[in-house]
Amino acid sequence: MQSDLVCFNPACRARFSITDVLYNCTKCGGLLEAQYDFGSPDPGALKRSWRERRLSNEPLCQSGVWRYREMFPFLDDERHVITLREGNTPLLDAPRAAVYGGLARLTFKHQGFNPTGSFKDNGMTCGAAQARRLGMKRVACVSTGNTSASMAAYASAGGLEPLIFIPHGNISYGKLAQALEYGARTFQVEANFDQILALVRVLAERLGIYLLNSINPFRIEGQKSIAIEMMDQRDWRVPDWVVLPGGNLGNVSALGKGFREMRDLGLIDRLPRLAVVQAEGASPFYQYMQAKGHARFQARENPETLATAIKIGDPVSWPKAQFEVVTSAGAVESVTEQEIADAKAVIGQCGIGCEPASAATLAGIRKLTAAGVIDKDSNVVAVLTGNVLKDPDYIYRYHTDQLKAPDGTPIKANFGNRPIVVPNDADRIAELIR
Ligand code: F0G
Q1: pTM of the model
Q2: Ligand 1 pocket by Cβ (under 6 Å)
């Protein structure tokens, strides 16, 4: 099948070979995306074949990404694929979170169930496959945690050398531990995410290393599967809203592309509206969209939030994200540290749990329903992007009333759950339990 890399800038649309090692258009500097000549496959036949694959023991069919490979046919040979059986993440109903969010019903698509604990695995399996197909030996990324853990795992599983660059002192131990355990060469750089991304791009160019940040269009292709699997699990009934946190804005770009392509192929009959939620201290996209075209996009120089996964001031994919939000008649919201922390505890009380960045979704939903943007009876799916074990420190501090925002403001434990210190005395403990 014909596939190309195409410049995302509508005024340029330059085409490149699918095997060119490029992250930006060489003509205008725009973002790139993979495009295919899908032909006109029978939507019913595709859906049946994807269902049947769930019964198969073939690794590619067991993957919740490659099961849908007809939607991203960029490889010439499936032997390049490395799968850890990524995807296959559940849709979970969360009545308590729905009430908190001002909704009659709310469903979470929990990407934290992935092999390395985040949605990055959906994209990384595709990015790593492309790296192998191109004959690359080394792969690199800058990361606030999840990308590095994911890239380390897929690279090592696929015989590639992973090189990881992380902001020194600013990533969770759980994530750093994964990178080390999976055998990545790990560099802790004294700079923030945006600065390190610029640095890694220079190194990638100079040393011929393949870059696996979300600027890599094949990462985006893999992350489309989050939308496809969601629709498959919902028997192709489109929700009114899909809500997700926004950092570098790759994921909203991916889901938006996935929904559009499914609609164009007749797999779904309409687009859901996409809502992106940013942390107030790292919300350049929110600011830009608020200005409704009256201001240029402005990066935020010193982004600050405890939700480290979305602590990004200069998101590379903002033009794609803007397109997807506008095309889907979506919304962008920003939430405070207190709002994120409380929403996270409520998601925890549902027996579900997630990392701080993921909880921005529920905090955003609460604001969007209060403002009348999301209707109370809407059918809403929020994407929980990462696992509850990402930031145990944050959780302990919140529940014991010790959590502080980056500017030192105390965060109240409105849903706190303190551990109780007790003597080794059955009578006293029984009394407490009663
Ligand atoms: N949620 C989680 C758990 C993340 O790890 C990230 C990104 C995002 C949301 C934001 O997604 O960038 O596509 O808008 N984490 C990156 C990392 C930056 O390095 O792991 P986005």
Answers
A1: 0.97
A2: 118, 120, 143-147, 214, 245-251, 309-310, 355, 357-358, 385-386
